[in-house]
Amino acid sequence: MANPRQTAIQTIANTDYDLNQLDFRASHLKDLFGSLVFSEEVQKARLPKPVFKALQKTIKQGAQLTDPAIADAVASAMKDWAIEHGATHFTHLFQPMTGLTAEKHDSFLAPVGDGTAVAEFSGKELIKGEPDASSFPSGGIRATFEARGYTGWDPTSPAYIRETPNGATLVIPTVFVSWTGEALDKKTPLLRSMEALSAQALRIVRLFGNKDAVKVFTTVGPEQEYFLIDKNFLYSRPDLMNCGRTLFGAKPPKGQELEDQYFGTIPERVIACMAECEAEMFKLGIPVKTRHNEVAPSQYEIAPIFEDSNLATDHNQLCMDVIRRTAEKYGLVCLLHEKPFAGINGSGKHNNWSMATDLGENLLNPGDTPHDNAQFLVFCVAVIRAVAKYPELLRVSVASAGNDHRLGANEAPPAIISIFLGSQLQDIMDQLEKGKPEKTIPGGFMEIGVSVLPKLPRDAGDRNRTSPFAFTGNKFEFRAVGSSFSIGGPNTVLNTIVAESIDFIATALEKATQGGTPLNKAIQDLLPGILKESKKVIFNGNGYSDEWQQEAARRGLPNLKNTVDSLPTIVSKESIALFGKYKVFTEGELTARYNIFAEKYVKEVTIEAATMVNMAKTMILPAAIRYQGEVATAVNATKAAGIDATAQLEALKELAATVTAFQKATAALEHELAHEHSGDPYAHAKATRDGVLPKMVELRTLGDKLETLVADDHWPLPTYREMLFIK
Ligand code: ADP
Ligand code: MG
């Protein structure tokens, strides 16, 4: 009988896929785009003018929707539009602390009492929902007896239609809060952080004479990396199925060393799948732009054009969902884990980030005039100061059990947070730091507002892939985010720490200018000191090198190597003060997150360990013992025939010794898992890291050794060679 691995391979070899399911000649891209979105265009066509105006004011300028009649009018138009698109239900989509999205569907149907029914959807239903949803992690905010959680409409992220087999649903993006108003989700704090940044950034914009902008948005373009492998492999690997990553698997003879995958031709089945993913995303109004092969075999990347960070976050959640669901149709499975395969690159999500006014001015775009450049420098220095002041918060915003396998593993940025500026911007910062106005022109130093800064080209030549936080011409790229993450968390932190820096700078500049100092002089007086204090975080060298680890230690930069080391930052005094001041998180909300992340860490590692034990006992050990029996029989038969069997006996000894060690390691891990933990979630996380993780590593090493000893026809688990290269 064929084992699961052989069955998987045969199935793949014998399956034909219909790869021509779409015809872009029949449906043009531009007609597809946004066709399932209750977009501005649809709103304009379907809403009474005053309602449309009020709604747009809320979306574009953050004005509150106060009039219930407006919500009713919007709801009614939305319902008619949705029903025309085949929707039978609506749902409030929210983003609980699991990092995923959650939804509960309600039908539009309302019986009228005479045996008939009408379709109904009121403003009240649009604005507020009360899913029971008491089982989501709340970190202690919601005791289950008062488990009320509310969803609230976010008008700034447009509703859309989700098409599924046999129907469609109207999806309304919402926040999720407790009845006391505490955030139970990732969207609420993100929106709060965007408001905080907007309020502070407007102060600077005003100092530069801009009276028209009413809001500053943070903009984000997340580059999403992922793996696609054949679905049949998933079925025969409990680790991939339960944990999204392989817990065993010997290094293949060929991995990514030839770099023949990176930017290579995309395999046919994969490109067919990508095309359908993109078509789906276009319909949902997600502006996907680029696709390519990534460094690891079977690894790919998709990137959209940037949007405001709230929309970008919602769209990235949708993007992950669309790829997961579409892959299935092509017999593929999408792995979003940060490290599905040991020994080859893992997946991340580069979070390209900037700030822009509602009039469309990118505040991190160096301009052509001294005036523009001065404003750019102020914002740029604000970001540098923020990263220098709160590196631990950025670090913890990307901490997870999965990302621990990636950060600092010489393929992803190190766990040390630093900034890469590139030679041109570095040169300008150096001049700025040294520059004294009186020496300016003769000494060649820069004076703000007077000399023309060298114009920074948009694509600033040099690139550094090893830095966690890099300036890339007109935006910063935060590269440490994990592939499976909601970008809501990291952007909440980024927005808040930058808001604090801008606040600090605006306060100083306002004071100086009110005292009669010209703005340029005030900037010139202020920025050098900030740069001096912050420059320890700037590093333009190789972030993967050992020298950087030592250099960073000398500079006193934090090096929080894993999730457990970084979690306490969340509830530090500085964190509570910062997030409290800008009304992004209360102390209670921070404590809840600290507990939730610790619990999540424990659960993820424990599930992995339990899966390993299970695979060890029911898959690897039986195969190894069967093979051991075969070899033993052969040795005896050889001896009985009077032939020297020394070499075979040696092989048998090595095999038996490895099997014994493997059994012991399995028992040790099982024992560790049986340990009852008491204490708070953080203590538990620490014990898990220190007790469970090392035993998993030991067991894996032995299991992987067995893979190289046991006869191939006995080995039940698809190998790395097969999973990564059979396409
Ligand atoms: P790269 O050279 O880093 O590949 P791209 O121009 O291709 O740069 O952009 C990568 C990502 O950064 C894209 O998602 C893009 O939309 C995004 N991006 C570009 N400008 C901004 C900006 N001002 N704010 C946020 N993201 C941006
Ligand atoms: Mg990339």
Average pLDDT score: 91
Taking all Cα atoms into account, the compactness measure Rg is: 28 Å
How much of the sequence is in beta strands? 5-15%
Largest sheet: 9 strands, mixed
The end-to-end span amounts to: 25 Å
| Helix count, DSSP H or I runs of 4 or more residues | 24
| Uncertain stretches | 437-443
Total number of strands = 17
Shape: globular
By secondary-structure content and strand pairing, the structural class works out as: alpha+beta
| Cofactors, ions, other ligands | adenosine-5'-diphosphate, magnesium ion
Q: How helix-rich are the residues, as a percent range?
A: 40-55%
Describe this structure in words.
By secondary structure, the protein is of the alpha+beta class. It is built from 24 helices and 17 strands. Strands 9, 10, 11, 12, 13, 14, 15, 16 and 17 form a nine-stranded mixed beta sheet that branches. β16 (469-471) and β17 form a beta hairpin. The longest helix has 54 residues, at 587-640. The chain is globular, with a radius of gyration of 28 Å. Mean pLDDT is 91; it is low at 437-443. Bound molecules: adenosine-5'-diphosphate (ADP) and magnesium ion (MG). Adenosine-5'-diphosphate binds at residues 219-221, 223, 303-306, 352-354, 362, 472, 474-475.
